[in-house]
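Continuing from the previous page...

OK, I double-checked the sequence for Class I SAM-dependent methyltransferase against my notes and this is the correct one:
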Amino acid sequence: MTPTRARYDAVADFYASGWPDAIDDPASLRLLTLLEPIAGRRILDLACGHGRITRELARRGAAQVVGVDLSAALLERARAAERDNPLGIHYIHADVTTWSTPDQYDAVTCNFGLSDIDDLDAALATAARALRPGGLFVCSLLHPCFPGGPNVSGSWPSGGRYHDEGWWQATGELSSLRRQVGANHRTLATYLNAIRRQGLWLDELSEPEPSRDWASGRPDAARFPVFLVMRWVKATAQP
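Thanks. Re-ran it with the corrected sequence; updated C-alpha cells here:
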C-alpha cells in the first residue's frame, strides 16, 4: 500500500537545508551518546527524514542501518545522498504506524519524530516489534513540558493548557518548522505510559540544555526544559 502524502513533502527543501549532516545540536548528540556503542549494531531509524541520523549511525560503524519515513520527498534526498556517498543504508518509504518487518534490530531510534506521528501507539508498537529482546529504543523530542517564550512556541498552543492534547500549528516567529508542519502535543505521562505499554523499560532519561547560541537569543524560553531524550530497553521475557 502506498503511504499517504506526508506533511513534510511540502517543506522538504526547507527542512533538509535547515538540518544538515553536522550533528551539533544537544538533543541529537545525546541520542547518539545513549545509543553507544554504535559500532557493530543493527539499527532501525523511524521517521528518518532526509537521513541525517542514519548517515551518522553508519559513519560510527553500525553494522546495518535502515531508515523508514512517510515523506517521499525527504527520502528522495536521503537516497540521493546514499548514491553520492554510499554508506550501505537502506531506505524504506512507509507509514511507521502500519509498516512491519520480520527483522529484529539491536536498536531503534526516533529523533524528533514522535510528535509528527498522529498514531503514537501504533508507531511505538512498530518500534517494539522490531527490537530484539534486550534491544534499545532511543528517542528525542521537544520536551512535552516546554512552555515556550517570546516568539518561541512551546509544546502546546500559547492560549491552551499543558493538559490539552492534540495536533496544532505553532505561531511563534522563531518556530519556523512547526509553523509549517504543526505537531502533536502530548503530556509527559502520555509518552511514558504509551512506551511502557509496549514492553519497554525506561533505562535513562535526559534533558539536555539548548546550545548557548540558542539560549542567548531566547533567554526566557531557555529557563525551561527544552529537549527530552530517553533510552528504553525491551524486556527479555514477558512478566
